[in-house]
Structure formats: C-alpha cells, structure tokens
Amino acid sequence: APFMVNAYPYFAYRDNPKEVSLDYVLFGQSPGVKDPKGFTYNNMLDAQIDSVYSAMAALGHNDSIPVSVSETGWPSKGDPADIGVTPENAKNYNSRVIKHVTSNAGTPMRPNRVIDTYIFALFNENQKPGPTTERNFGLLQPDGSKVYDIDLSCGYCGAAPPPPAPLPMQWSRPANAGRQPGAIWCIAKPSADPSVLQESLDFSCGQGGADCGSIRQGGPCYSPNTVH
C-alpha cells in the first residue's frame, strides 16, 4: 500500500508570501528552487512529495514504498485578509496539477513514475466551520453548479505510463522440463534486494495471476520461507 500524504502548496504560500512565489506554487513560470542535493524544483508540489521520499529514505525505506497524494487543492474564496484566493488561481492550480500528474513525469527525485493524486475537493462545504477558505476548496457548489470551469475529461491522459521496472529475477528451465512442457523456475539473483523481491512475489502471486500454492504455508515448497 502507498504512503499517503496531504500536500498543500497553498498553505505554504499563505503563511509566507514574501518568500514563496505564487508562480512557484501554481506551476507557473518559476525559475525554480535548487535543493542541496542538486535537484531543481519548478513547483512546490514536487518538492513536498520528494521531501516525504527523502524522509522515508532516511528511515531505511529507500523507494520500497510508493507515495500517493491523498489531498491537494486550492481555495477559490477566502476572508478579506487572505491573499491569492481567487477562482482563477484555484482553476490554474488544479488544472495544472491534473496535467502534471497525468503526464507521469514523476518528481526530480523519482522521475518517470505514476503518483496517484486526489484533488480536494469535489464540492464546496458550505456548512463547514472555520475560515472561509475551508468551505471553498470545491470544484462544484453544493447544488452541483460549477465554481469555475475546469477540464475533467482526462484530455491530458494521452501519455502512456512508464514501463515497469524489470523484476530482479532470472528465468531458467528445470532439468526435467522435457517431462513438464512450459515449466520454468524463478531464481532470485543473490544481489537482489529482499524487499524488492518480496514486492515482485506479492505481485506475481496476486495481481499477476501466478499459481503460488506450492510456496504458500502448507505447500511442499514453503520451507525455507525466505525470499533468497
């Protein structure tokens, strides 16, 4: 399962507009920000996602768990003191997020990958307490009318997803393959990362549709129950 984060460049801009460029948070014509590792970020959402990847790597989860953005968005209306809160900015942010994530470009630290991202929110929440902005993140009004025009037809979805990374395995036919037409062995490379191997096994025995009964608990090949 992915590690899910709520990422809101809007709040970073709201809290520090003198230091955070509006173009940078709205996927505009920003000169970008270069981090100490040498990556250049042209928008804050990518930087926020990569900060999570960096923190996970520091804890030993180096690319073993994908990151998904469970919430991101921009309010279309706020209180008089709020800056940058307009239907135009909300439209620009959300439409550019859709275009960016459906291009499968990934982030500077994790390029060429799909990052599942969910726009918050579908409807304005007119009865929600708190600041006006909290009631106005929606694409639609509570009655179903549009807050602003935004293309949700998936017109940006023409880019094909990147090809899957090759599995860290090598394939060979068993010695008695002549008596078992089509049978193959799956042999893990000694240098393969155990966590990546486990992911490959989980996929093959699940979504991949392989019959893994022999290596499950109670099967003739269950022991030893290690990936190497």
Automatic annotation (TrEMBL):
Residues 184-226 form the X8 domain. InterPro entries: GH (IPR017853), Glyco_hydro_17 (IPR000490), Glyco_hydro_17_plant (IPR044965), X8 (IPR012946). It comes from the Eukaryota. GO terms for biological process: carbohydrate metabolic process. The keyword Disulfide bond applies. Keywords: Disulfide bond, Glycosidase, Hydrolase, Signal. Gene3D superfamilies: Glycosidases. The keyword Zinc does not apply. One of its GO terms (molecular function) is hydrolase activity, hydrolyzing O-glycosyl compounds. Transmembrane segments: none annotated. Belongs to the glycosyl hydrolase 17 family. This is Putative beta-1,3-glucanase.
